[in-house]
Amino acid sequence: MARTVAACVALALAASISSAEAQRATQVLSAASAQTIVDGCRKHAEGLNKSQGIAVYDTGGNLVAALRMDRNSAAIMQFASEKAKAAALWGFPTSAMENIIKAAPGFAQAPNVVGLPGGLPIYTADGKTLLGGAGASGESSADDVACIEAGIKVAGLASSRPAPPAQK
Questions:
Q1: Tell me, what CATH number does 93's domain have?
Q2: Within a domain: 17
Q3: N or C: which end of the chain has fewer CB within 10 A?
Q4: HEC string of the chain?
């Protein structure tokens, strides 16, 4: 009987440790990381004498950090927000959404789809866990993407998953 109780206690402890380990593995986009992305994007834009609307969302579609630089309208900020939210919820760049829309026009009607470059997903540094998305608007599409890439890099995060290993 004592052995049975001890075995049950050991199993219960092992299960609780596994649960705790699993919870620690869950990662979310922190406010500090989101602000670092915004600051990195802002510095990139300022270095090129550009002006951007910048937004960062978590995977739940919640705004975490944003900045409307001088010379941008509220509409530019809204567009940056839509790009960021789309990338956060779908987990891939808005430039890829543009390509999907060309192949399957009905995709444009899906929720949270933006068919222009400027929104990138945010992954952990190893590219394994989606944390959210960031978007920029206000300049050319290439400038919008470069701005967000710079911000994500400054934060020590990734904007894509690692490439799968080559087939042998």
A1: 3.30.450.150
A2: no
A3: C
A4: CHHHHHHHHHHHHHHHHHHHHHHHHCCCCCHHHHHHHHHHHHHHHHHCCCCCEEEEEECCCCEEEEEECCCCCHHHHHHHHHHHHHHHHHCCCHHHHHHHHHHCHHHHHCCCCCCCCCEEEEECCCCCCEEEEEEEECCCHHHHHHHHHHHHHHCCCECCCCCCCCCC
Fill in the amino acid letter for 14: A
Where residue 3 falls among pLDDT bands split at 50, 70, 90?
low
The predicted-structure confidence for 77-128, as pLDDT tens digits, reads as follows 999 999 999 999 999 999 999 899 999 999 999 999 999 999 999 999 999 9
Domain count, the chain: 1
Decide if 11 is inside a domain.
no
User: How far, in Å, are 15, 44, 63, 107 from residue 3 at the CA level?
Assistant: 18, 64, 53, 60
Q: What is the pTM of this model?
A: 0.82
